[in-house]
């Protein structure tokens, strides 16, 4: 989690940082998972229930030593499956608009996520991109 927060501090201005720290992940509407390879943490992801039919992907991160190994793809597949099992009709996310976030935006688009307006209390921000997928 500290690698994720450090990355957000490096690439996102404070007013546009939406990554949750450990305390932010301890809310009852948020479920957090970690992905492991043997005894090594390779990634993490959280799902926030916005309402009974809408979830938001939060804090998805691949450990820097495991980039480009398919970790993010597997985490995203897991999130979509979990959202469907929960009966959500829509899964949304916020990510950065800067070039460093292009690979993430390409991954989301490859899974059918489309750009959308801000949702759930977010507001227009030149540093943020909002995406959603009907399930």
Please render the helix and strand layout as text.
Layout: H1 2-11, E1 30-37, E2 40-51, E3 54-62, H2 71-85, E4 90-96, H3 102-110, E5 114-115, E6 128-134
Parallel strand pairs: 3-4
Antiparallel strand pairs: 1-2, 2-3, 4-6, 5-6
Give a quick summary of the entry.
The chain is α+β, with helices and mostly antiparallel strands. The protein has helices spanning 2-11, 71-85, 102-110; strands spanning 30-37, 40-51, 54-62, 90-96, 114-115, 128-134. It comes from Guptibacillus hwajinpoensis.
What is the CATH fold-level name? Aminopeptidase
Number of helices: 3
Number of strands: 6
CATH homologous superfamily - what is it? Gcn5-related N-acetyltransferase (GNAT)
Strand order across the largest sheet = 1-2-3-4-6-5
Shape verdict: globular
Number of domains: 1
* Major sheet summary line: 6 strands, mixed
Keywords: Acyltransferase, Transferase
InterPro entries: Acyl_CoA_acyltransferase, Bact_Acetyltransf, GNAT_dom
Protein name: Acetyltransferase
Domain N-acetyltransferase: 1-135
């Amino acid at each position: 989690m500290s690698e994720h927060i450090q990355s957000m501090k490096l690439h996102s201005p404070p007013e546009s940082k939406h990554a949750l720290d450990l305390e932010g992940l301890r809310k009852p509407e948020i479920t957090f998972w970690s992905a492991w390879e043997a005894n090594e943490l390779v990634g993490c992801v959280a799902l926030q229930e916005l309402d009974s039919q809408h979830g938001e992907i939060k804090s998805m991160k691949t450990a820097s030593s495991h980039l480009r190994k398919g970790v993010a793809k597997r985490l995203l597949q897991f999130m979509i499956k979990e959202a469907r099992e929960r009966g959500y009709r829509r899964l949304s996310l916020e990510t950065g608009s800067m070039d460093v976030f292009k690979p993430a935006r390409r991954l989301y688009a490859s899974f059918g996520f489309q750009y959308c307006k801000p949702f759930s209390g977010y507001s227009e921000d030149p540093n943020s991109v909002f995406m959603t997928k009907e399930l």
